[in-house]
C-alpha cells in the first residue's frame, strides 16, 4: 500500500478529490436554485431529469479534473524508468525531500478515500446479494387473476418486457427486482387485504419503474454514492432523484388507472400496513408515502417556490468561492523548491539542425575504427556519410567517413567501419574504446533544443519551462519531432527563446510548477 500511494498519480488523485469539494457545492447550488425558481411549473419528470443531470455532472467533474490536472502537467510521467543507460549520461538532480504539508497529506487523503469507497462498495455489493437471495427464495403462489391483471397493465403501459408477480412475506411493500428479467415482489397482506383496484394501482406504479429502467439507474446511483461518498451534496441530490423517481411513477400509475383518489387511498392503506420501525426509517426519506400522498392531494402546494431555496443557493455559492480559493491556493503553494545549480536548462533555437547517430566502438588500426550502432537507428546510415571519432578523456577528435556497413545484427546492434582522414593524436592506445558520431542528414530552418534525457522522436512529453525572471518553472506539453545525438526538433509547445529544463526531473512528476533558487 505504501508503494502504491507513492506513485505519481496519488497527488493527482488527491487534488481531484479536494477540488470536488467546491465542484460538488457548485452543482448542488445550481440545482437548488433551478428547482426553487422553477417550482411547480415543471413536471416531476422535468425535476427528475434536472436531478439526474446534476448527479451526472458530479460524476463527470472529478474525471475531467483528473484529466485536466494530468494534461496541464500534474503527475504526468515524463521519463522512461527502464531507460537507465540514457539517464546515467545526464547530470544528477539533487534530491529534495517533500516538506509541503499538502503534498505530505495526499497519500493519507487518498488512503482514507480508498477505505471509504471500499466500505460503500461492499455495502452496495451486499445489497445486490440480498436482492438476489430474495428473488431466489421460496414464494407463495399468486392467483392467476393477479398475473392476468399485471399482463393487462403491461400491455396498457407499453412495457417492453415480461414481468412476473411473486408473493412473499419478506417485504413490506411491492418492489421491483432485476433489470433484464424483472420481477415484482408483493407482500401477501397487500394482495389479500386491499381492494382489487388499489392493488392494480400499486402494480401500475411498479411497472412504471420497469418501463423507466429505474432499477439500472438506481444501481448507477449506488456506484456514484460509493465513489463520492465523502460529499454530502452527492447524497442530497441522490435522495432528490429517488423522491422525484417515485413521483414520476405515481404520475404514470395514475395515467394507467385513471383515478387519483383510488391511488392515494392505496398509498394510505399501504402506509398503515407497514410496521412501525419501517415507517420510522422511511420518514427521513423525501420519497415517503406521506409526502407522496400530500403531493397527489395538492400538487401546487407541494412544490410552491420557497425563498429558502434561493437563499441556500446564494449561501452555497459564497461557500463555493471560499472553498475554491482555499483549494486552488493550497495547490498553488504545493511547489517544491529546486536549486538552479542542480538542473540543466537549454534555450530553444531556430535554424538548421544536423541529424546524427551515436555509436560506441574501438580502434581497429591507426586509420580505422569499428563502431556499433543500434539497429533501430541504422535505417539512415549509408556508406560515405561523414563521421567523427572521439576519445575517452581527450578533447581531440578525428574526422572520417563510413566505409563499410555490415548487415549482420548482434545483440540489437550493427557494425560500421569508419576510415579516418587524419592520423591519431599522439598517446592514443589502439585498444581503448572510442565514441563515434555519424551525420546522417539535416533539417533546414526548424525549431530545436538540447535533447532531454527522456527525449524520443515523435513523442509528446512534459517539460518545465522557465518563467520570465527564472525564479520558477511550469510544466507544459511539448511535441517532439526528429532526434539527433544532442538535439531534438520541436513540433509544438515551445518557441525560439524559451528556456526549458532538459535534465531528469522525474522526481517532480507530481507537480505542475517548481520554484527555482
CATH architecture of the domain at 345-501: Beta Barrel
Radius of gyration: 35 Å
Return the structural class.
alpha+beta
Strand content: 15-25%
Q: Given the C-alpha coordinates, what overall shape results?
A: elongated
Kindly report the spatial arrangement of strands forming the biggest sheet. 6-7-10-9-8-11
Work out the helix count. Answer: 15
Task: Using the coordinates above, name the CATH class of the domain at 345-501.
Answer: Mainly Beta
Give the proportion of residues in helices: 40-55%
Outline of the structure:
The chain has 517 residues and is of the alpha+beta class. It is 46% helix and 23% strand.
Report what the structure shows.
About 45% of the residues lie in helices and about 25% in strands. It is an alpha+beta fold and about 525 residues long. It has a domain at about 345-500: Beta Barrel (Elongation Factor Tu (Ef-tu), domain 3), CATH 2.40.30. The strands form 2 sheets. A 6-stranded antiparallel beta barrel has the order 6-7-10-9-8-11. The longest helix is centred in the N-terminal third of the chain and has 36 residues, at about 100-135. It is elongated and about 115 Å long. The chain starts with a helix and ends with a strand.
Features:
single chain, 517 residues, alpha+beta, Elongation Factor Tu (Ef-tu), domain 3, 6-stranded antiparallel β-barrel, 3-stranded mixed β-sheet, 15 helices, 16 strands, 46% helix, elongated
Amino acid at each position: 500500500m505504501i508503494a502504491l500511494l507513492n506513485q505519481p498519480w496519488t497527488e493527482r488523485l488527491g487534488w481531484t478529490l479536494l477540488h470536488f469539494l467546491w465542484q460538488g457545492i457548485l452543482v448542488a447550488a445550481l440545482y437548488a436554485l433551478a428547482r426553487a425558481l422553477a417550482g411547480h411549473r415543471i413536471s416531476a419528470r422535468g425535476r427528475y431529469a434536472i436531478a439526474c443531470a446534476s448527479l451526472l455532472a458530479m460524476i463527470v467533474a472529478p474525471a475531467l479534473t483528473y484529466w485536466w490536472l494530468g494534461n496541464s502537467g500534474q503527475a504526468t510521467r515524463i521519463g522512461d524508468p527502464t531507460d537507465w543507460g540514457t539517464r546515467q549520461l545526464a547530470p544528477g538532480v539533487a534530491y529534495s525531500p517533500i516538506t509541503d504539508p499538502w503534498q505530505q497529506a495526499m497519500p493519507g487523503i487518498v488512503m482514507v478515500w480508498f477505505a471509504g469507497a471500499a466500505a460503500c462498495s461492499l455495502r452496495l455489493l451486499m445489497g445486490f446479494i440480498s436482492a438476489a437471495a430474495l428473488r431466489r427464495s421460496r414464494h407463495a403462489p399468486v392467483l392467476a387473476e393477479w398475473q392476468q391483471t399485471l399482463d393487462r397493465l403491461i400491455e396498457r403501459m407499453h412495457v417492453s418486457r415480461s414481468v412476473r408477480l411473486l408473493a412473499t412475506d419478506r417485504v413490506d411493500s411491492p418492489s421491483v427486482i432485476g433489470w433484464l428479467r424483472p420481477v415484482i415482489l408483493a407482500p401477501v397482506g397487500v394482495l389479500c387485504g386491499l381492494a382489487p383496484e388499489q392493488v392494480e394501482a400499486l402494480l401500475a406504479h411498479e411497472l412504471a419503474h420497469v418501463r423507466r429502467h429505474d432499477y439500472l439507474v438506481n444501481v448507477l446511483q449506488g456506484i456514484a454514492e460509493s465513489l463520492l461518498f465523502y460529499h454530502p451534496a452527492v447524497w442530497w441530490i441522490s435522495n432528490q432523484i429517488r423522491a422525484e423517481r417515485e413521483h414520476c411513477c405515481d404520475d404514470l400509475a395514475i395515467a394507467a388507472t385513471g383515478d387519483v383518489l383510488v391511488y392515494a387511498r392505496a398509498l394510505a392503506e399501504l402506509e398503515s400496513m407497514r410496521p412501525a420501525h419501517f415507517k420510522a426509517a422511511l420518514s427521513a426519506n423525501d420519497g415517503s408515502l406521506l409526502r407522496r400522498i400530500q403531493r397527489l392531494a395538492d400538487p401546487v402546494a407541494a412544490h410552491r417556490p420557497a425563498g429558502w431555496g434561493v437563499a441556500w443557493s446564494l449561501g452555497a455559492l459564497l461557500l463555493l468561492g471560499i472553498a475554491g480559493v482555499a483549494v486552488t491556493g493550497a495547490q498553488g503553494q504545493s511547489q517544491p523548491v529546486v536549486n538552479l545549480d542542480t538542473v540543466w536548462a537549454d534555450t530553444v533555437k531556430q535554424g538548421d539542425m544536423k541529424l546524427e547517430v551515436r555509436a560506441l566502438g574501438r580502434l581497429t588500426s591507426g586509420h580505422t575504427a569499428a563502431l556499433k550502432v543500434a539497429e533501430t537507428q541504422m535505417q539512415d546510415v549509408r556508406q560515405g556519410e561523414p563521421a567523427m571519432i572521439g576519445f575517452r578523456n581527450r578533447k581531440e577528435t578525428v574526422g572520417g567517413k563510413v566505409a563499410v556497413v555490415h548487415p549482420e545484427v548482434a545483440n540489437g546492434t550493427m557494425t560500421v567501419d569508419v576510415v579516418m582522414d587524419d592520423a591519431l593524436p599522439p598517446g592514443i592506445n589502439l585498444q581503448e574504446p572510442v565514441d563515434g558520431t555519424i551525420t546522417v542528414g539535416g533539417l533546414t530552418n526548424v525549431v530545436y533544443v538540447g535533447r532531454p534525457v527522456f527525449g524520443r522522436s515523435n513523442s509528446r512529453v512534459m517539460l518545465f519551462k522557465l518563467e520570465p525572471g527564472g525564479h520558477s518553472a511550469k510544466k507544459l506539453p511539448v511535441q517532439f519531432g526528429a532526434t539527433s545525438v544532442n538535439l531534438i526538433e520541436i513540433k509544438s509547445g515551445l518557441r525560439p527563446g524559451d528556456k526549458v529544463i532538459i535534465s531528469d526531473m522525474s522526481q517532480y512528476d507530481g507537480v505542475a510548477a517548481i520554484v527555482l533558487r
